[in-house]
Amino acid sequence: MILAADIGGTKTLLQLSRAGAAGLEVLREQRFDSEAYADFESLLNEFLQAARAAGITDITAACIAVAGPVTGAQAKVTNLPWLIRADVLKQRFSIPRLRLINDFQAVGYGIDAITANDMLVLQAGRPEARAPRAVIGAGTGLGEGILVWQQDHYEVLPSEGGHVDFAPTSAVQRDFLAHMCERQARLSYEEVLSGKGLVSLYRFFVQRHGATPLALDFDAAAVSNAAERGDVSAEQAVEMFVRIYGAQAGNLALTSLAAGGVYVAGGIAPRIRERMTDGTFIAAFCDKGAMKSLLTHYPVALILDTTIGLKGAALVAQRLLV
Predict the structure, then answer these.
(1) How does pLDDT run across 92-105, given as a tens digit for each residue?
(2) Residue 125 phi, psi (nearest 5)
(3) How many CB atoms lie within 10 A of CB 223?
(4) For residues 162 and 142, is the Cβ–Cβ distance under 8 A?
(5) What is d(CA 263, CA 14) in angstroms, rounded to the nearest whole number?
(6) Which end of the chain, N or C, is more open, meaning fewer C-beta atoms within 10 Å of its C-beta?
């Protein structure tokens, strides 16, 4: 029996599976509102109590994917006050083998657990076998990871590249940076390529046009919905979001020389699929001066499976049994 967890600032996914010769048989899976719990232990205890009541016991291995940096055997969730310690979880829940990994490490591992039907090709490119891969995804925050071939499979290197300094690539993006820096000293890519970042972009365009904003309690979903209805400020916010997204994906591709492919994950991209596939993203991805011809050869795919991180964590837990 193996436990997989994908912990994010907004939601936490948990899964119990039985490992056998034919692969993994999922026995129980549940989604939780992360902010409704004071800590991960309380959430996990609730899940496992229900599992025990259903006759599911004796977990042999577990992999916990965390949206935040993992240091040694503990991890701090970036957008929650949760500190997760492997030794505490192993002792309290009697799990002999347990590994903590970054959430985008889990996404990277999950690439081998999904099919072509779970992805949408943004650029076919010319993939090189066993070459490095890169994964990037905007959601509550911005996750990134780099995959390198080791023996017979890809291993995933964690990254906090989403927190690097935002670099505008146009006059309007420079105006946006100035707008944001009136309110804070520094702007990272995560503060742009995330749900709250899309809201910030929308507020910027509303102010720029002197327009009437949406209701006071609007969020990223409301902005994307308004863009579909033809709201000019929302349309421009989503367009610039996609353009910045493509530029940062290209930055990561150059940093890692991801000739094996670049994979776009996260919760936002599938919701704005039409915008992601209209050429804006790839144009910004490839717009790297002398490196443009290189990036046009790199495959780029949009991951549609929103449970890829959970599948990756389950794969890592299964490997702990070997």
Answers:
(1) 999 999 999 999 89
(2) 60, -160
(3) 26
(4) yes
(5) 23
(6) C
